[in-house]
From TrEMBL:
NCBIfam families: fliQ (TIGR01402). Keywords: Bacterial flagellum, Cell membrane, Cell projection, Cilium, Flagellum, Membrane, Transmembrane, Transmembrane helix. This is Flagellar biosynthetic protein FliQ. Belongs to the FliQ/MopD/SpaQ family. InterPro entries: Bac_export_3, FliQ. Role in flagellar biosynthesis. Its main location: membrane. One of its GO terms (biological process) is protein secretion. The chain crosses the membrane at residues 16-39, 51-70. It is a multi-pass membrane protein. The lineage of its organism: Bacteria, Pseudomonadati, Pseudomonadota, Gammaproteobacteria, Vibrionales. It is found in: Cell membrane; Bacterial flagellum basal body. One of its GO terms (cellular component) is bacterial-type flagellum basal body.
């Protein structure tokens, strides 16, 4: 296995992780921003008001993107299995 091949696999895995985490975190971040703006405009300082919508949106994002993320992970895993002989020699 050459260092270039290892760096390519590592780069692909980091890119996959970044895409999957972004799909979960960004919707919660946007909802948190909207709730924070609402709280600032109305002077409501309730912590559960910001936590609960983010939690719900994060769970909905996991439900919505779960199949897609599983497919991405399976494709990456199958590609690693196919490249296993090249990795060992």
């Amino acid at each position: 296995m050459t260092p270039e091949h290892f760096v390519g696999l590592f780069q692909d895995s980091l890119q996959l992780i970044l895409i999957m985490v972004s799909a979960i975190v960004l919707p919660g971040l946007l909802v948190g921003l909207i709730v924070a703006i609402f709280q600032a405009a109305t002077s409501i300082n309730e912590q559960t008001l910001s936590f609960l919508p983010r939690l719900i949106v994060t769970l909905l994002a996991l439900m919505f993107f779960g199949h897609w993320m599983t497919r991405l992970l399976m494709e990456y895993f199958f590609r690693l299995i196919e490249e296993m002989p090249q990795l060992l020699y």
